[in-house]
């Protein structure tokens, strides 16, 4: 970063200034467009549900209330499910990133005799799937139903992430591994002591991918752990709440033509709850990114090697 | 541990290239046992979790009923494939799938790379981080919510129509979502809006690997901002771009179904129906798992064709590649 | 419109309080006596009340997972039987859930499969109940006896207990189904005119829009149909109602010949409806966003006061009507109208008494103790417990006046409408999804089984505006100025099981797709192009295998008429 400030004078040509101004204007437009949906959800979630039906709420609530949040957090299971979600995000990310990086390292080694075979075998699995039911039966036969492990084990390796990390390792300057070998370090030690620290930006990136995936996933809860409330995740519990309000507000399906049509007013609506759960579910995970950003510092990798 | 006397070049050909060298292969394997230990367990994992369930492919040739034992299933040959390929709408659906995922691929790549380059040029680190964080927010909005926002924006009294009428481009509002010919554009735009920030992350990480001394050198040569972006940052990103491109080409038939389902309607179905919606309609909803499997196999074949072609093109061009 | 409905007869009789036994409730009354006298048919071997917990899974997302004993109703039932339930409700996608459940062959003790019932029956997930009912089910026999033949499966056995075994009949005083709704200010403006035909309906909208081109600075919207892809059936069904038929799914059935015909592509049903919409679209009265708006947008329109009329099912937009009601501006609310094509047609918006034989709850083959479960079911079907699951406890969740009529105080009504209360008390879990009386049943004491059908409850919910409007139309309730439903022994034809992946099923999917594509096009085209588009649509439509579908539907309907369900 020091070199940027040192050469500041060079940047200040007219062309550069115009470029900078346009760039900032563009970024501001981008911020407006991408921030809107979130502010909109926040406003709807803080607005009286019955009033929100009228529409027209943009970024500020019209009739402020905490009711929607009370409704969501009234659910005793929410806090436990947050804990489960956080656990699977943390454990899942650590396990997956470590394993994926290790595999990526071995596959980055040009001289490894199994390299091509393993690489292709892994890549193929990105595009093939035996289908839902065979997958389910496998998990059942492995006795992974109703376990926490089912959140972690099937996702140990992400091929996509593996490729990303491998590309990074391959992009490292040649000399690094050489020097490690001269030091007489073994493969595993090289991986831990040299490769991991040098690929931090890549690891931070894939950690984010894995953590977001883990945090947001509900389909595996639905398939494998739906009857074990202790292993339920936040997204799944929020979906339950949403579906409850859905049914309550339109309790008259064609086969169920009675009750409730008396104009009763429920405190929440599916729309307000959906907005609330968007905020509740995504705020924690969104906050992870700013934390990871400090690992995306220009020149860190190579600079580290040089130093 | 290992001391490699042999040059790297030899091994890249793989063991089978020299049948006489099976012993050599074993010897190397022994030499590289640390690497073997670090990778082969995952191969085992892969086999169990990804390859074992492939028996499911056989169900594409059956009238599969989940409650029957595998041996009791009724074999029906290629009926599912026939149903898929002979449906009169199949080619339209295939076209839509290709077009939509190509749009997504091209737009997704170009916008994410451009945004990464521009973000990289921002001088204020704090502002840069704020923009990054905000730009990835829409990724966390479910498609239901995103589609709802898009529908509102594009409605008769939505901001797009209002703006266009104010600046005099339109006399009366256009019903954007009712016109099939706009659908691909709307979908592409929505996908970019939702995921451009998210897709940028990987390029921002890749930019960190570029050696800062290159920029210094370029500056001394008097290169301006655009020139530096073009001749240093972009080439620095090239390996990542190429690898991601090859990987994504394998997903050419995966256009998703949620946005199409939520933004499409009968009036746009000639443009919005894709393979996944077809499978949903005639497969999943009808509990016809065999059809879904058959469609999945078809997709795999297409994926492999694209993947192998892209990879060998990359190889010929001397670019980085997937395998 | 002065025709008196069953409901009104029933109501006046009940208020007279004495003659109730002679009315439509007679059937249930008699049955109730029998059950009261011989309730424990197998009392020589008293049912065990040892504590036990079973599992229950419902494919409808009615509630959150809960132990039955954590709800008031579940607790009371547990005290009676010793049985507790671990109740689970579907979250996510039902087809997948059913597929996985079937593939694993691991079933909960009791399943309420909703739309997945055919798959589970196919898979042999349910155990036959005949012997159990014979031995342990006096109340089951009382409630379901008259209907047994309607839900026996092909092998002659009973595998599940449906939800719609009506004991007597009382109609819904409100219109909660489909109708042509009109903003009350329009009706008021023209002095509450009689609106019978579609022309009259559109004419009122036309005149009102001319007089009031804007509402609060925004353009008035004439008429909309809530018909995006997932509720497209609204625009399809409206035509059937206009022609004087109830919603029978994709067909309408001639009352004399009992011949079923596909609605799509009919010159006398679908075409005039499309033509009418095409005309009002050209005049600027039809909301072009009918097919693209989502539910939130439609509800915003309904609550904005700008929309003069719409066709939709009331339960689709409950939040919007609630909002209007709480806002307290009666003129901006909507009144249902039984609109038909011409004066000679008798409207059929109100569903005929019907027996839905493809929904229900059954005991799975994996059930640990089917005897205890069937005893629980039987106990649940005792009249007092049926009152418990619908009305709750006397003086707690409902009150009884000096004439024995059930009603709810304001407080009780408020609770009954509160989702959280419904969950904690257990209404949400027990009023549906278990063996039960049909929703239109009458209790032995003449009160309505379903809370919403009780005239007293409906009346207490009427606002002054409601009363004014009802008085203007000389009606006691909203359903009062709709025609009585004719008896249709096959009804509802939409519950006919067409099987999976059959030519009939594929016809339905393709024909829906075609209509989704062409109907909006037809409406929004210039009037002189209408005929050409219709012809193009028919050309495409005639390519489909309509004959097979019609043939099957006719066979099934004939079977039902003959009592073979």
UniProtKB/TrEMBL annotation, chain A:
GO cellular component assignments: plasma membrane
Alphabetical list of PROSITE patterns matching this protein: ABC_TM1
Record keyword Iron present: no
Regions that span the bilayer: 21-39, 78-105, 117-136, 148-169, 190-212, 272-292
Main location: membrane
The entry's keywords: Cell membrane, Membrane, Transmembrane, Transmembrane helix, Transport
InterPro entries, per the entry: MetI-like, MetI-like_sf
Compartment(s) where it occurs, according to its Swiss-Prot or TrEMBL record: Cell membrane
Cited Pfam families: BPD_transp_1 (PF00528)
GO terms, biological process: transmembrane transport
Residue ranges constituting the ABC transmembrane type-1 domain according to the UniProt record: 82-289
Membrane topology type: Multi-pass membrane protein
PANTHER family: ABC TRANSPORTER PERMEASE PROTEIN MG189-RELATED-RELATED (PTHR43744), POLYGALACTURONAN_RHAMNOGALACTURONAN TRANSPORT SYSTEM PERMEASE PROTEIN YTCP (PTHR43744:SF9)
Family in the record: Belongs to the binding-protein-dependent transport system permease family.
This protein's name: Carbohydrate ABC transporter permease
From TrEMBL, chain C:
Lineage of the organism: Bacteria, Bacillati, Bacillota, Bacilli, Bacillales
PANTHER family per record: ARABINOSE-BINDING PROTEIN-RELATED, DIACETYLCHITOBIOSE BINDING PROTEIN DASA
Protein's name in the database: ABC transporter substrate-binding protein
Low complexity composition-biased segments: 35-47
The keyword Mitochondrion belongs to this UniProt entry's keyword annotation: no
InterPro entries, per database record: Bact_solute-bd_prot1
Region feature (Disordered): 26-47
Keywords for the protein's UniProt record, in alphabetical order: Signal
Source taxon at top rank: Bacteria
Signal peptide: 1-21
């Amino acid at each position: 970063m020091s070199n940027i400030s040192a050469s500041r004078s060079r940047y200040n040509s007219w062309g550069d200034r115009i470029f900078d101004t346009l760039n900032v204007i563009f970024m501001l437009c981008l911020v407006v467009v991408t921030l809107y949906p979130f502010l909109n959800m926040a406003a709807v979630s803080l607005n009286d549900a019955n009033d929100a039906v009228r529409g027209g709420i943009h970024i500020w609530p019209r009739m402020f209330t905490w009711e929607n949040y009370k409704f969501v957090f009234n659910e005793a299971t929410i806090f436990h499910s947050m804990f489960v979600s956080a656990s699977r995000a943390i454990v899942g990310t650590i396990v997956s990133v470590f394993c994926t990086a290790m595999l990526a390292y071995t596959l980055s080694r040009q001289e490894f005799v199994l390299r091509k075979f393993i690489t292709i075998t892994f890549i193929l699995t990105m595009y093939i799937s035996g289908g839902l039911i065979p997958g389910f039966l496998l998990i059942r036969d492995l006795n992974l139903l109703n376990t926490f492990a089912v959140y972690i084990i099937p996702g140990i390796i992400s091929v996509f992430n593996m490729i990303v990390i491998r590309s990074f390792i391959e992009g490292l300057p040649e000399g690094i591994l050489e020097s490690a070998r001269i030091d007489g370090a073994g493969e595993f030690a090289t991986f831990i002591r040299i490769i991991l620290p040098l690929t931090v930006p890549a690891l931070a990136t894939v950690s984010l991918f894995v953590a977001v995936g883990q945090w947001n996933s509900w389909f595996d809860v639905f398939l494998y752990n739906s009857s074990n409330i202790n292993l339920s995740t936040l997204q799944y519990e929020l979906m339950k709440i949403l579906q409850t309000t859905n049914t309550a507000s339109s309790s008259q399906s064609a086969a169920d033509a009675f009750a409730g049509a008396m104009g009763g007013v429920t405190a929440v609506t599916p729309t307000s709850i959906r907005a609330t759960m968007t905020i509740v579910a995504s705020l924690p995970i969104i906050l992870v990114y700013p934390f990871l950003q400090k690992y995306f510092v220009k020149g860190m990798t190579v600079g580290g090697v040089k130093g | 541990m290992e001391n490699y006397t042999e040059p790297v070049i030899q091994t890249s050909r793989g063991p089978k290239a020299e049948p006489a060298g099976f012993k050599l292969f074993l010897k190397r394997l022994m030499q590289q046992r640390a690497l073997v230990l670090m990778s082969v367990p995952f191969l085992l994992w892969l086999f169990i979790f990804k390859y074992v369930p492939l028996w499911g492919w056989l169900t594409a040739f059956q009238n599969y009923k989940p409650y029957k034992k595998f041996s009791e299933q009724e074999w029906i040959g290629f009926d599912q494939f026939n149903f898929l390929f002979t449906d009169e709408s199949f080619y339209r659906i295939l076209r839509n799938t290709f077009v939509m995922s190509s749009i997504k691929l091209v737009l997704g790549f170009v916008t994410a790379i451009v945004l990464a380059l521009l973000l990289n040029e921002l001088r204020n680190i704090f502002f840069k981080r704020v923009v990054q964080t905000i730009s990835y927010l829409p990724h966390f909005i479910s498609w239901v919510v995103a589609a709802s926002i898009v529908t509102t924006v594009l409605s008769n009294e939505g901001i797009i129509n209002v703006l266009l009428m104010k600046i005099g481009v339109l006399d009366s509002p256009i019903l954007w979502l009712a016109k099939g010919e706009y659908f691909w554009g709307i979908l592409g735009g929505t996908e970019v809006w939702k995921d451009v920030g998210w897709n940028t992350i990987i390029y921002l990480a890749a930019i960190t690997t570029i050696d800062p001394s290159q920029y210094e050198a370029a500056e001394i040569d008097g290169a301006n901002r655009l020139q530096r972006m073009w001749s240093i940052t972009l080439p620095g990103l090239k390996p990542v771009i190429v690898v991601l491109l090859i990987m994504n080409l394998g997903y050419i038939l995966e256009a998703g179904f949620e946005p199409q389902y939520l933004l499409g309607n009968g009036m746009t179905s000639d443009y919005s129906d894709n393979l996944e919606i077809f499978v949903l309609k005639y497969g999943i909803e009808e509990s016809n798992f065999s059809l879904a499997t058959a469609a999945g196999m078809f997709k795999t074949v297409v994926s492999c064709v694209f993947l192998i072609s892209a990879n060998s093109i990359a190889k010929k061009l001397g670019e980085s590649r997937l395998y | 419109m002065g025709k008196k409905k069953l409901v009104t007869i029933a109501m006046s009789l009940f208020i007279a309080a004495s003659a109730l036994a002679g009315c439509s409730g007679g059937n249930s009354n008699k049955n109730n006596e029998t059950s009261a006298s011989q309730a424990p048919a197998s009392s020589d071997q008293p049912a065990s009340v040892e504590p036990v917990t079973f599992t229950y899974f419902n494919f409808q997302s009615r509630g959150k997972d809960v132990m039955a004993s954590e709800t008031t109703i579940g607790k009371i039932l547990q005290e009676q039987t010793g049985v507790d339930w671990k109740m689970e409700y579907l979250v996510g996608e039902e087809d997948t859930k059913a597929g996985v459940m079937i593939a694993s062959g691991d079933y909960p003790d009791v399943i309420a499969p909703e739309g997945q019932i055919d798959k589970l029956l196919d898979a042999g997930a349910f155990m036959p109940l005949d012997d159990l009912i014979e031995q342990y089910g006096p109340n089951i026999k009382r409630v379901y006896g008259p209907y047994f033949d309607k839900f026996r499966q092909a092998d002659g056995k009973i595998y599940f207990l449906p939800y719609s075994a009506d004991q007597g009949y009382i109609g819904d005083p409100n219109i909660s189904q489909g109708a042509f709704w009109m903003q009350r200010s329009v009706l008021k403006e023209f002095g509450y005119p009689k609106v019978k035909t579609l022309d009259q309906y559109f004419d009122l909208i036309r005149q009102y829009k001319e007089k009031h081109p804007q509402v609060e600075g925004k353009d008035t919207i004439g008429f909309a149909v809530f018909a995006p892809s997932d509720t497209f059936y609204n625009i399809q069904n409206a035509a059937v109602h206009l022609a004087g038929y109830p919603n029978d799914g994709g067909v309408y059935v001639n009352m004399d010949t009992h011949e079923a015909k596909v609605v799509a592509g009919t010159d006398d049903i679908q075409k005039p409806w499309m033509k009418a919409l095409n005309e009002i679209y050209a005049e600027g009265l039809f909301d072009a966003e009918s097919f693209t708006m989502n539910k939130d947008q439609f509800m915003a329109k309904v609550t904005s006061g700008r929309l003069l009329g719409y066709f939709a099912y009331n339960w689709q937009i409950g939040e919007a009507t609630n909002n209007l009601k709480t806002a307290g501006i009666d003129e901006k609310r909507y009144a249902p109208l039984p609109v038909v094509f011409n004066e000679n047609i008798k409207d059929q918006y109100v569903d005929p008494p019907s027996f839905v034989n493809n929904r229900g709850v059954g005991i799975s083959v994996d059930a640990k103790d089917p005897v205890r479960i069937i005893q629980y079911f039987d106990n649940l079907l005792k009249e007092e417990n049926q009152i418990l699951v619908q009305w709750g406890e006397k003086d707690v969740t409902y009150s009884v006046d000096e004439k024995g009529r059930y009603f709810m105080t304001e407080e009780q009504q408020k609770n009954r409408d509160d989702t959280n209360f419904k969950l904690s008390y257990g209404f949400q879990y027990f009023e549906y999804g278990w063996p039960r009386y049909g929703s239109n049943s009458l209790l032995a004491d003449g009160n309505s089984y379903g809370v919403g059908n009780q005239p007293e409850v409906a009346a207490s919910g009427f606002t002054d505006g409601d009363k004014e409007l009802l008085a203007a139309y000389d009606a006691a309730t909203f359903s009062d100025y709709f025609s009585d439903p004719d008896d249709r022994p096959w009804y509802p034809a939409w519950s006919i099981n067409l099987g999976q992946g059959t030519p009939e099923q594929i016809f339905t999917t393709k024909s829906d797709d075609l209509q989704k594509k062409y109907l909006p096009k037809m409406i929004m085209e210039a009037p002189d192009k209408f005929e050409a588009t219709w012809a193009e649509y028919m050309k495409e439509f005639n390519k489909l295998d309509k004959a097979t579908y019609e043939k099957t539907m006719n066979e099934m309907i004939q079977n039902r008429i003959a009592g073979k369900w």
